[in-house]
Amino acid sequence: MSWWTPQVEAIAFALFQALVILIAAVGAGALLTMVERRLLGLWQDRHGPNRVGPFGVLQILADMLKILFKEDWIPPFADRIFFVLAPAIAMASLLLSFMIIPITPSWGVADLHIGLLFFFAMAGINVYAVLFGGWSSGNKYALLGAMRASAQTLSYEVFMGLSLMGVVAMAGSFNMREIVAAQETIWFIVPQFFGFCTFLVAGIAVTHRHPFDQPEAEQELADGYHVEYSGMKWGMFFIGEYVGIVLVSALMVTLFLGGWHGPWLPPIVWFLLKTTVFVGFFVLLRAALPRPRYDAVMSFGWKICLPLTLINLLVTGALILVFSPAGG
Amino acid sequence: MEIAFYLSAVVAVLATLGVVTGRHPVHALLYLIVSLIAVAMVFFALGAPFAGALEIIVYAGAIMVLFVFVVMMLNLGEAAAQQERAWLRLSTWLGPAILSGVLLLVLLVTLIGADVGGRIEGETLTAKAVGTLLFGPYLVVVELAAMLLLAALVAASHLGRSEAHDEAHAVRQVPGKRTADGRGRAASERSLGDDTSSEENSR
Hints:
The complex is a heterodimer.
Chain A: H1 6-43, H2 59-69, H3 80-97, H4 115-136, H5 140-171, H6 176-181, H7 193-206, H8 218-221, H9 231-256, H10 267-288, H11 294-323
Helix pairs in contact in A: 1-9, 1-10, 2-9, 3-4, 3-9, 4-5, 5-7, 5-11, 7-9, 7-11, 9-10
Chain B: H1 2-21, H2 25-45, H3 49-74, H4 78-87, H5 90-113, H6 127-134, H7 139-181, H8 187-190, H9 194-202
Helix pairs in contact in B: 1-2, 2-3, 7-9
């Protein structure tokens, strides 16, 4: 056992961590497909899937069987390379973003000092999934959905970045671990409340969740950008959406709710608990809100959220300068 | 780090060649995106992760999305590929290729002959260091760039606005004119708005 040096052990442990986090993220996304329908049923006073297994928990197995055994059909009029590439981008860019999230003091994949910027980069790449998927399908509804999605995502990414700059300014770092460490005394949701609100809105819009799901509005676009997809390729878009929800929830917990900080319980429990609350909130939004018109979504982003984040950033900067002028 | 640098540099060069020789506009754009990401990787390998991340966020994540957006809306088909094929004839690209080759040769000779002193291994620049430089010695440049961008923003907003304004004007004007002419109007025009119907009542 001469090769089993502490260095090899560290590499093996890091690989093990990365694998566990990856599988947990995908598993949470897949599980959410079932949990969401059950919760929607609960909140909308109907049953939801409750036939397969106790309380319908085996529904996810049934869904997986169906998705995996469906014919994996590529339309003859589609652009093959882009058609196959799009779902891969959708899953991969979101899963890669889990890399920067510190789950507990000892768990987390990468400790990048540009941490938060890495998430913005991946969110930027993620736009291509919808754009390529919609265009390569050769279907006008898919193209319209892709157009809406890219315009919406671009608009909301502008102030998503700005909404987090207040947090970055207060923590003095892009590094996620330092941001969590800076929330030892007070969670950033208190001093950065407007940043929190706008990031919440932007997070929902970037994952195209209800009420910002115009790109896939069934009534007008027959499902939007993934209308031509079937089988596991569609499944990757579908699960990618839920992975996005988990990612945005985990980010909000890390950036605004103190990450793993909390009394009595161990850090991992606090992190999972807070993340679950946000995921539940996402589902509740879908259960409660109607879908606004597309132009209303766009003007809300540019005319309300963007000025709000700018004012928030201005006030934050001014207060930091007043209270700690030599803080740089 | 050197391996990472050379690998991503090779990818960047090959992808850029793909952009130039690609016949399908959207495929060429995909190569351009890959090229930009490869350049970002070069920045990472050189120890400038902040510049690399911004390269992906700004170029690959925002500007290229708009490029792809526009090209997809143009609905370019076989005709565009034909045109591209015609442009890619030997006689077209031979001259510029030779000239660029001479430039490349000069660059290579300079790099190999003179000791530029640059090494790939360098210290990693943090975001803080970049920020201190930008808002310290280069403050005027940053302010000027911001003003340039603001000017572009105002111009774009103006160009977008005037058209919409004219359209709104036209919709309100056209029914009024016809009323003045006293010509008969179709029933569909009556449902245009309250303005028209109230005008009709007053007559």
